[in-house]
Fold this protein.
Amino acid sequence: MGKLVDLLRESDKTVVLTGAGISTASGIPDFRSPGTGLWQRMDPYLLSVETLASDPGTFYRHCVEIFTPVLTVEPNPGHYALAKLEDLGYVKGIITQNIDGLHQKAGSKKVLEVHGHLRTAYCINCLREIPLTALLQRVEGGEIPPLCSSCRGILRPKVVLFGDLLPEDFIEAQREVASSTLLLVIGSSLEVSPVNTLPSLASNLAIINLTPTGYDAMARVILHADAAAVLTAVAEELA
């Protein structure tokens, strides 16, 4: 951990990339852990553009099942530690693959959400937005697919589905990593494309993840450890 603290002290611009592993301590399962990962229990393509178009009943039932519990989850010490490191000036921004909004709940200010978020849903025709909670309530009430009150277009969550293009936040994320002096990856297997290309843009790389990644050989620091515990200790050391 001492080497990571030194890197953070030396870095003029540290950017953080987080994956599902930072939120597991909040009770949200990751995607690929054997036996517990979300994609171990369901076909990921049930949440795809194709399923939305061809089988909206299945798509929206899985939206309710997967997204509803996440809306009430609270940040864990890892999220709060990152917010503290931002307040202290050691972290200049967070790029997250997560859609749970826990970085913002913990107080992080500059967050790029490259896979979207669960705050709103939108109409695929007129782009009108409504709270995601309103969409889920309508689905639970039997409205499948839920339709826009303005144009009768289909409403869908503002998350990146399989088959979607990534939002503008990803372009900004590429710029942020390319201009950084350190990219700290936390809780990501770095297997999901194209987000897994971001470390190749970094001048220096550090990784905190329970399991090895394809970028370990490039990293100056690798910690195969619990993210929340490491980040809490790092924030305390730098405070």
In short: Strands lie at 14-18, 93-96, 111-113, 116-123, 129-131, 155-159, 182-186, 205-208, 221-223.
